[in-house]
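Encode chain A's predicted structure.
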Amino acid sequence: MTDMSRRLTSYLPETPQRLALLESIQRESLRASLDLQLVLSVIDVESRFTSRAVSSAGAEGLMQVMPFWKKEIGRDSDDLFDPDTNLRYGCTILAWYLKVEKGDITRALARYNGSLGKTGYPEQVMTRWDTRWWIDS
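Encoded structure for chain A:
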């Protein structure tokens, strides 16, 4: 966590906010059986760790979740700008796509981004993983 916190400083300079977010990311990554570094890389590419981010397509929050997912896996009243809620949705969706794609990260990431058949988005995430979030075990 200390190393990840240091890497996240440029996005979130306040230590308490940074640590709270990292704890939430770790909790939801574990709950969905996802690699923490992968989730950090997705968030980095999707929102640059901005919880109030909105894409041109209407995706919301840290992991840029489309509002239609509230009807699919949640409730209409869920707030996708709430970091914990957004992380729960995003990790659940990404884990589902990894299952659908039998562990193929490239295809799962493309599905997550709505760009199945294209490699641009998966390449961005994998590059961010390799250059910013990778930790040797």
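DSSP finds seven helices and no strands in the chain.
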